[in-house]
Amino acid sequence: MMSVLDAPSPTHSTEPRLRARMTARSPHEAHRTATPLELLFDLVFVVAIAQAANGLHHAIAELHPLEGLVGYLMVFFAIWWAWMGFTWFASAYDCDDVPYRLLVFVQISGALLLAAGIPTMFETRTPNMAIVGGYVIMRLALVAQWLRASASDVKRRATARRYAVGITILQTAWVAMLLVPRYWTAGFIALVLLDVALPLWAERASPTTWHPHHIAERYGLLTLIVLGESILSATTAIESAFTSGNALSDLAPLIAGGLLIVYSMWWIYFDRPAHDLLTSMGKAFVWGYGHYFVFGSAAAVGAGLAVAVDAATHHGKIGLVGAGAAVAVPVATYLVCLWILHYRPEYRRTRSYGPVAAVLVLLTPLTGHAVPLIGLILAVLVASKLAAHRTHHRSVVH
Prior knowledge:
This protein is an all-alpha fold. The chain is built from 12 helices and no strands. The longest helix has about 30 residues, at about 210-245.
């Protein structure tokens, strides 16, 4: 995690240089957008997120929700934290030369290895070499990037070295945890806390630079990826209507509700640009870390919709109430998280809408028709906020 400080920006060409100095980029750089390499990095994470959501889906459908949720949260942390490390580093130090690109390819390879180990973890309920190894590969490639930054950025050399040393020690500890599986739960919690605390310690030496517009765009792109899980589940519902023997009319409310949910979740997140929320290091830490729950809940909505399809087509052990809860809980979590993270002064008139909608969403499983009702609640929420903002805008103009 990094703070906004002005710094000289290197010339950033579309053609990769053989080797460049990894100096800090300016947080005021014009037209700073995601690069093709960053988009490729995100594309690979689609696989890992899909595997995690699929594992959660099957665990809930087979009446193992607690075990599935614990496994999902653990795997999603590895996915999210590796993505975080890459994203914030790239915002400050992307020199786009050959060594930088090659190290990103190593990180991508680690993500694929991690994704390959996810199904086994959900089956055995224990970590495996693929998941830990993939995570370590991603993080150690980042160590090499930080060492390059320490060699070029004299002003922030202490910070870069703190990151490099801290990550190396923690990755050694992650590997060591494989040797003592009986202490895995306690060890996992301890190492997670140390991992997320590392930036707080490292940045105290000399805050690194980052670009608010670039960070907001990168987070928005990952939001689109996790919402894609819900799109996939809606597609599965449509496919089931034609292949499972169920009448289209039986699954139509589920399909319509699922689409309303994902459309509304998109609208709520992208209500307006988020870069103006990143005005200090403290706010950036809260906003950046808080997105673990935004991303995790959004991907879990897709898993919940898949469970709802199983319940409707009688392909799972779970009933309609449980399937409804599998959708309602992550949707409510998503609403509450955005209510906390995306609050702005101009939202004061609609400040209560999010929590009220979350409470109503949590009540829908009791009806046995949770998905269409949740879709309707979210659609009304979006319409109500639009109407309130339009009224406020007219009153200001006049």
